[in-house]
Amino acid sequence: MSTKEGTGDHEGVSLVMTVLNEASSIGAFLSSLEGQDRSPEELVVVDGGSTDQTVAAIEDWARAVPWPVRVEVRPGANISEGRNAAIALAKYDLVAVTDAGTVLDADWLATLLRGKESGVDVVCGFFEPTWSSWRERLLASSLMPLKSEIDPDAFLPSSRSLLVTRRAWEVVGGYPEWLDYCEDLVFDIAMKEAGLTFAFAGGAIARWPARPTFTTYARQYYRYGRGDGKAGLWSKRHAARYAAYATGLAGLAVARGPVVPTLLTLGFGAYASRYFRRVWSRRPESVGRTAALLAMVPAVAVVGDVAKMVGYPVGLSWRKRYQNGRDR
């Protein structure tokens, strides 16, 4: 019996995920899964061709848990292909989705399931940052949104914390397998446009770390920008970013005296206010460490913006070639 006493709810739920070279983090994830107040009826994992001990670690762990664990190895599968394959293999019509590298709060799955009321097709969980170094803390606390920022009606959930019906997945044709980044946003938008019903379960928390260095952070945000371009997402938002930086650079180039730099500084402070607010909300007890984190917020904002501005036109170029190829 996989549902622990006192947590009976739905008839069955499959948990699906993809993995690729997660040997260093998979143990923490599996421990958090084993500690769930409400266990899934099965776990389906699609491995994209790991060259480390990821698959062996999952298979060893699976021998000790009371529910079925299926591991399917599909070398070269991207995250969308892996998720679609896992959902296709899943036994149950309720499917919880998460990512390797996360650590799930003990009530994560139970909270998602409580949000699955009659008529609800998609239950959106939430995520919170973790860190093990000062730099990870800076990036995580700056970039990850606060729950107070979320509009439940407009929220597009990450697939690291999601519950979806098989019907919803089928209606939109699954995750977009042509897309390597931002695939979960495209999946969400397709379900919204199909008229499916969403519910927000903000207490279903999956915790995950930020990138450990500015180099890996910049690479991640370059891929986000490229993914936006490939998917044709947020064109106005990207245009506004280019315009803002172009205006700022032009203003600095022609500035004579302190007025223009002061105005630009105030404008940038207003633009980056959400980053400052997040860091302040997650501040350490030390005043000095808090001040150091706040002082680095502009660097975080600029690095992420520049990375996206480099990646976005690369994605747009790919999209044009892709569409031209389909039209032939």
Order of helices and strands: EHEHEHEEHEHEHHEHHHHH
The assembly state of the depicted protein chains is single chain
The CATH superfamily title of the largest domain: Spore Coat Polysaccharide Biosynthesis Protein SpsA, Chain A
Q: Which stretches are poorly predicted, pLDDT < 50 over at least 5 residues?
A: 1-8
**Spatial order of the strands forming the largest sheet:** 3-2-1-4-7-6-8-5
**Share of β-strand residues:** 5-15%
CATH class group of the largest domain: Alpha Beta
Largest sheet: 8 strands, mixed
Structure, described:
The chain has helices at 26-34, 54-62, 79-89, 108-114, 134-143, 166-171, 183-193, 214-231, 235-254, 259-271, 273-281, 287-327, and strands at 14-19, 42-47, 69-73, 94-97, 103-104, 122-130, 162-165, 198-209. It has 328 residues and is an alpha/beta fold. It has an 8-stranded mixed beta sheet. The relative contact order is 0.12. Residues 1-8 have low confidence and may be disordered.
Topology:
Blueprint: E1 14-19, H1 26-34, E2 42-47, H2 54-62, E3 69-73, H3 79-89, E4 94-97, E5 103-104, H4 108-114, E6 122-130, H5 134-143, E7 162-165, H6 166-171, H7 183-193, E8 198-209, H8 214-231, H9 235-254, H10 259-271, H11 273-281, H12 287-327
Parallel strand pairs: 1-2, 1-4, 2-3, 6-8
Antiparallel strand pairs: 4-7, 5-8, 6-7
Summarize the entry for a quick read:
With 328 residues, this protein is of the alpha/beta class.
Which characteristics define this entry?
Spore Coat Polysaccharide Biosynthesis Protein SpsA, Chain A, alpha/beta, 12 helices, 2 domains, 50% helix
